[in-house]
Amino acid sequence: MTPSLQRTPTNRPRRAAAVQPDFQPGEEILSVTVCPAPPGAFVVAVHGEVDRSTGPLLCDRLLHHLRPAHPRLVIDLTDVSFFGAAGLTVLVTVREAAETAGVRLCLVAGTRVVLRPLAITGLDELFDVCPDVAHARLRPGDVADDDCILPGPRAGPGTPSSV
């Protein structure tokens, strides 16, 4: 006897996987704001969703601001509501271009939406990730006050340990 599967009819309409319940027609899915942040830095604030449809726009905007005349680029991902694999690809692409251009890149991320994909892929080890823009604006060698504790370098092979 061969088992058979029968579909039970339902009166419920099928849900489309691509429909976003919070999306309103005419609403921007992604917006990018750029602000100069002396000395010699730009802060690019990203708002909305970073996915395969918005990733190329974000990548273009970020690459546009990689200039040796501005040695630091801070990418503020605080207001990102969705961060897919395309967002990770954008960050890796921009990181490689930043290294080539001699620009220091820093990410501002404090939400699970962004931190989780970075941690799962191990990319949090490659990027300078700060909890807020104030931390990101500190240059290497700057001294933070007592209220402001910067994350130290991570221990790894070949890293001297302090006791």
Describe this structure as you would to a colleague:
This protein has 163 residues and is an alpha/beta fold. Helices cover 26% and strands 23% of the residues. Strands 1-2-3-4-5 form a 5-stranded mixed β-sheet. Strand 4 (104-108), helix 3 and strand 5 (128-130) form a beta-alpha-beta unit. The longest helix is centred in the middle third of the chain and has 17 residues, at 85-101. The chain is globular and about 30 Å long.
Shape annotation: globular
Amino-to-carboxy terminus distance: 71 Å
The low-confidence parts are 2-7, 13-25, 141-163
**For the CA atoms, what is the radius of gyration?**
21 Å
Strand order of the largest sheet: 1-2-3-4-5
Oligomer: single chain
Give a count of the beta strands, DSSP E runs of length 2 or more: 5
Estimate percent helicity.
25-40%
| Beta strand % | 15-25%
Describe what is shown at a glance.
The chain has 163 residues and is of the alpha/beta class. The protein is built from 4 helices and 5 strands; from the N terminus they run E-E-H-E-H-E-H-E-H. Helix 1 packs parallel to helix 2.
Ordered list of secondary-structure elements with their pairings:
Elements: E1 30-37, E2 41-50, H1 55-64, E3 72-83, H2 85-101, E4 104-108, H3 112-121, E5 128-130, H4 133-137
Parallel strand pairs: 2-3, 3-4, 4-5
Antiparallel strand pairs: 1-2
Helix pairs in contact: 1-2
